[in-house]
C-alpha cells in the first residue's frame, strides 16, 4: 500500500506588503504617488498588482504636493509613499501643505525594524513625532494584523470632518511578517465594517433655527455679499451656490481657488470690484473660506467695522476661532441646500437697479476697462500682461471641459489671478493658503491623473518652476497632457534688483540672491526626455506654440522670455481694484 501524505492542507500566506496593498484597494484607493526604495518597493509593486496606479516621482516633495492636490480634486485621500528617514522628512512638505489647505491626504512611510529602534539603524527616525505637528492623525502598524485597522483609521481621518493630512508608519519587520490569506480577508472585512460605522457616526446635523437666522440676515441686508472658497469647491457646492446667487441676485466674490465655481464672467461676479465689495458690504455669507490673511482676517480697514459675517464651515473649531455674527457648521453643499430651501419658502431678490448692484457693476466695468486697455497692447520684449492675455485667450478657446490651470510664482501668479478666466469648478490650483512655492509640477501631475479628460496648463514663474523642474521627465514617462508655460525673467521677481548701496562687501561681484542664469533654456530640459520644447519671445511665436501644444495634448514646456525689469517684489496678494 502506498504511503499517503498528511491530510493537513497548507494555507496561502501573504506578507505585510500584500496586506497593505489589499487594504488600500479595499478602501477604494486607485492612485498612489511616491518615491520607492528600501523598505517599500515591494509594497508599491503589490499595490500596482492590486489595481492601484503608482505614479513614481523623482522627489518626495513634489510627490507629496501631487497627493495633496489629488485629495482636493477627487475628495478621496491622496496617498504618498516614501522610504524611511529622509524620505519621510521630504514627504512632510506635502503632508503639511495638505493640512494647511485642509485637503485629505495620507503619508505612508516605511520605517526601521522595531527591534533596532534606538540603535542607529539605517535611516532611523522617530517618524511619528516628526509627523505629529503636520497631521490630524498619526498611526503605526506594530504587527501585521494591525495593518487593515491602521490603514482604514488613517484614511477615514483624512476625509471625515475637516479634511487634512494623516501619517501612517510601516516598520520593516511588519512588512515582512506573514499571515494566512483567509485571516487577512477577515481583518480587512472587520476594518471595512468599523469604517462604515465611523462614517455614520460623524454625520453632522445642522440646526434649522440657525439656518432661519442666516436667511433673515440675508433678507434684511442692504449690501449683501457672498464669498466662497476652495472649501465650497471641495464640497462640490457649485450648483447650490448658483441657485443661491441667481435666486437672490446677490453679488459674489470667490477666493483664488474658489474661482470657477461660478464663472468669472457671471454678471454678478464682484472680483473686479473686490475692494468696494468687501469694504462696503453689511452682511457677508462666507462659504468654505477662512477669514485668514487671504480675506484680511475679516477686519478693518479692508472690511467695514459693522459687517456681519455668516460663516459656513465644516469645522466648529474654525467658527469658534473667527467668532462670526453667526456660524453654520456643516458641509457647504448641505448647508446651502437648507439655505436655498428656506429662501424658496419666502423668496427675495435684489433687482438690477438696486444701488448696491449698480455700484458694484459700475466699479467692475471701470476696472475691467482699465485692465483690458493695458492688455490690448502688444509689448515686446514681453511684460507680464501681453503673454498672459494670449494665454487667457488660448485657454478660453479650448472650451469645455476647460483645462485645469496650475499657477505659481510671484508676479506670474499675481497677474494670472487677475487676468486668467476660470469658467468651471476646481480648474484652478495655486500656491494656496500657505503660499507654497514648488507645487507646480506635482499639482500638474495630480490634475492630469485625477481629471484625465482635461488638458492641464501650468503658468509658472521661473523660480517656481525650478523647485520641481525635473518632474518634466515624469510628465513624459507617463505621457500626461500637460503644457508648462515658464515666464522666464531671469530670477526671483526678475533678476538683480539691488540698489547701488546694496552692492557691497567681499562678494559683491557674485550674482544677486534673486538672480538666475539669464536666458536659461528651460524648454531644452523636457526635450532631453523626449517632450516638446518651445522658445518664444513674440506674440506670434507664443500663439503658435500654444495652438500646437494644446492640440497635441502631450508633455511640453513653453519658455516665454520676459523683460527682467517687468516685475516687482511680491509677497502677500495685492488687490488694488
UniProtKB/TrEMBL annotation:
By what name is this protein known? 2-hydroxyacyl-CoA lyase
Q: Which GO terms describe its cellular component?
A: peroxisome
Relate the protein's function as given in its record: Catalyzes a carbon-carbon cleavage reaction; cleaves a 2-hydroxy-3-methylacyl-CoA into formyl-CoA and a 2-methyl-branched fatty aldehyde.
Oligomer and partners: Homotetramer.
Record organism: Salix dunnii
Look up keyword Lyase and say if it applies.
yes
The Thiamine pyrophosphate enzyme central domain sits at 211-337
Q: Which GO terms describe its biological process?
A: fatty acid alpha-oxidation
Q: What is its EC number?
A: 4.1.2.63
Reaction it catalyzes: an (R)-2-hydroxy-long-chain-fatty acyl-CoA = a long-chain fatty aldehyde + formyl-CoA; a 2-hydroxy-3-methyl fatty acyl-CoA = a 2-methyl-branched fatty aldehyde + formyl-CoA
Which CDD domains does the entry link to? Answer: TPP_BZL_OCoD_HPCL (cd02004), TPP_PYR_POX_like (cd07035)
Return the Gene3D superfamilies for the record: 3.40.50.970, TPP-binding domain
Which Pfam families does this UniProt record tie to the protein?
TPP_enzyme_C, TPP_enzyme_M, TPP_enzyme_N
Amino acid at each position: 500500500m502506498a504511503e499517503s501524505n498528511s491530510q493537513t492542507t497548507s494555507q496561502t500566506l501573504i506578507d505585510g506588503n500584500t496586506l497593505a496593498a489589499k487594504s488600500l484597494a479595499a478602501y477604494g484607493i486607485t492612485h498612489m504617488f511616491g518615491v520607492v526604495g528600501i523598505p517599500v518597493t515591494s509594497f508599491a509593486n503589490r499595490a500596482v498588482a492590486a489595481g492601484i496606479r503608482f505614479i513614481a516621482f523623482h522627489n518626495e516633495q513634489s510627490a507629496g504636493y501631487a497627493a495633496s492636490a489629488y485629495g482636493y480634486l477627487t475628495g478621496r485621500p491622496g496617498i504618498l509613499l516614501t522610504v524611511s528617514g529622509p524620505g519621510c522628512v521630504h514627504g512632510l512638505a506635502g503632508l503639511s501643505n495638505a493640512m494647511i489647505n485642509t485637503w485629505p491626504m495620507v503619508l505612508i512611510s516605511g520605517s526601521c525594524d522595531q527591534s533596532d529602534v534606538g540603535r542607529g539603524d539605517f535611516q532611523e527616525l522617530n517618524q511619528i513625532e516628526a509627523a505629529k505637528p503636520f497631521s490630524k492623525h498619526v498611526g503605526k502598524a506594530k504587527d501585521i494584523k494591525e495593518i487593515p485597522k491602521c490603514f482604514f483609521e488613517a484614511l477615514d481621518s483624512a476625509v471625515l470632518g475637516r479634511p487634512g493630512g494623516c501619517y501612517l508608519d510601516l516598520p520593516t519587520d511588519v512588512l515582512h511578517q506573514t499571515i494566512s490569506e483567509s485571516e487577512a480577508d477577515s481583518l480587512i472585512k472587520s476594518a471595512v465594517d468599523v469604517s462604515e460605522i465611523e462614517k455614520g457616526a460623524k454625520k453632522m446635523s445642522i440646526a434649522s433655527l440657525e439656518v432661519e437666522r442666516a436667511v433673515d440676515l440675508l433678507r434684511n441686508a442692504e449690501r449683501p455679499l457672498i464669498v466662497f472658497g476652495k472649501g465650497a469647491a471641495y464640497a462640490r457646492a457649485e450648483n447650490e451656490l448658483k441657485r443661491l446667487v441667481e435666486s437672490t441676485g446677490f453679488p459674489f466674490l470667490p477666493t483664488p481657488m474658489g474661482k470657477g465655481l461660478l464663472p468669472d464672467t457671471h454678471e454678478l461676479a464682484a472680483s473686479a470690484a473686490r475692494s468696494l465689495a468687501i469694504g462696503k458690504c453689511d452682511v457677508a455669507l462666507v462659504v468654505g473660506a477662512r477669514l485668514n490673511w487671504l480675506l484680511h482676517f475679516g477686519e478693518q480697514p479692508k472690511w467695514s467695522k459693522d459687517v456681519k459675517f455668516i460663516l459656513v464651515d465644516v469645522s466648529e473649531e474654525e467658527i469658534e476661532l473667527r467668532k462670526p455674527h453667526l456660524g453654520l457648521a456643516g458641509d457647504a453643499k448641505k448647508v446651502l441646500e437648507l439655505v436655498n430651501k428656506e429662501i424658496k419658502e419666502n423668496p427675495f431678490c435684489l433687482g438690477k437697479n438696486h444701488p448696491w448692484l449698480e455700484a458694484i457693476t459700475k466699479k467692475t466695468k471701470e476696472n475691467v476697462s482699465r485692465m483690458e486697455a493695458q492688455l490690448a497692447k502688444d509689448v515686446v520684449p514681453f511684460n507680464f500682461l501681453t503673454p498672459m492675455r494670449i494665454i487667457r485667450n488660448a485657454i478660453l478657446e479650448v472650451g469645455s471641459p476647460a483645462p485645469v490651470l496650475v499657477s505659481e510664482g510671484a508676479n506670474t501668479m499675481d497677474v494670472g489671478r487677475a487676468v486668467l478666466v476660470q469658467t468651471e469648478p476646481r480648474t484652478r490650483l495655486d500656491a494656496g493658503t500657505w503660499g507654497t512655492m514648488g507645487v507646480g509640477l506635482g499639482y500638474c501631475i495630480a490634475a492630469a491623473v485625477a481629471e484625465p479628460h482635461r488638458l492641464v496648463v501650468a503658468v509658472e514663474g521661473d523660480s517656481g518652476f525650478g523647485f520641481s523642474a525635473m518632474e518634466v521627465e515624469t510628465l513624459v514617462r507617463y505621457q500626461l497632457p500637460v503644457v508648462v508655460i515658464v515666464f522666464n525673467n531671469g530670477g526671483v521677481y526678475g533678476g538683480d534688483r539691488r540698489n547701488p548701496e546694496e552692492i557691497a562687501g567681499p562678494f559683491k561681484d557674485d550674482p544677486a540672491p534673486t538672480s538666475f542664469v539669464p536666458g536659461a533654456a528651460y524648454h531644452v530640459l523636457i526635450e532631453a526626455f523626449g517632450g516638446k520644447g518651445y522658445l518664444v519671445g513674440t506674440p506670434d511665436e507664443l500663439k503658435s506654440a500654444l495652438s500646437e501644444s494644446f492640440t497635441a495634448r502631450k508633455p511640453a514646456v513653453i519658455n516665454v522670455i520676459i523683460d527682467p525689469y517687468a516685475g516687482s517684489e511680491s509677497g502677500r496678494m495685492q488687490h488694488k481694484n
